[in-house]
Amino acid sequence: MRLVGLLNRDKSGMRHISGTMVSESVRTESKESSTTALTVSNLSKIYDSTAGRVIALDKINFSVKKGEFVSIVGPSGSGKSTLLNMIGALDRPTMGNVYINGIDIFSLDDSMIATMRNNLIGFIFQSFNLINRTTVLKNVKLPGTISGMSTGKSHERAMKILEALGIGDKANQKPVNLSGGQQQRVAIARALVNNPTIVLADEPTGNLDTKTGEDVFDMLKTLSHKYRRTIIMVTHNPELAESTDRSISIRDGRIEKDVTN
To answer: Residue 120 in contact with residue 101, Cβ under 8 Å?
Structure first.
C-alpha cells in the first residue's frame, strides 16, 4: 500500500487543532506527550436506571504510544464499547479525562469536540456504517468535506487511499453492491482520509468470514507497524487480540490485566 505520503501529517489548517483552536490550558505538559497518542485518566461512567446505579467504567487508567496497536477485550457487558465511545468523544464520562495528542478533549465545548473528533479520530465499525444511497468515493470523502478540505484535495486523497487498499475500481459503485470485505475496506479508507491521530475499530472483523476478517486485520497491522498509525481495536477474538502489540482486558468496568504481546 502506497500510503506513506498520504499518512504524513498535514501541518496546515485544522489538522493539529492547536493555536487559536485549543487553549494551552487544556493541553497536558507531560514529557510523554511527544510519544503518546492517548492517555486515559481515572475514567468513569455511571448510569442511573430504574434498577439502580450501573457503573459501566470504574477509574480506568492507561496510555497508548503513537503507532501502537492495542486490543481491548472482555465479555459482553464488560464496558469495552463504553470505553471506546469515551475515547472517541461520542459520549462524555461521569468523571475522568481523555487526552489525545495532549488535548484534554472533555475540557472543550461540544462544537470543538466535534471538530476534534472529525480531525483526530477515525472510526471503523462492525456494521460498516456506510451511506448506501451514495457512492463509495463520496463516503470516503465525507470526513474531509466536513473538515473543510477542498473538493479537489478530498477527491485526490480518497482515490489514492482506495487504490492503495485495492478497491479504486469500486469508487463509483454504491457500498450495498460490494462484498463485506470490500465494504470494510471502504470504511478503513474513510477512517484514514483526514489522517487521524487515532483509529478506533469496534469489532472490525465481526461481520466478516474468517479469511476476509484475517485480511482486514492484516491491513490494520500494516497501517500500525509500517505507517505508524495508532489503532485501538475492540474484539471478542482472542487470537486477533494476541496478535496486536498489547491487549487490555476489561471486566465489570475495570482493567483486569494489561499485557504486552
So the answer is: yes
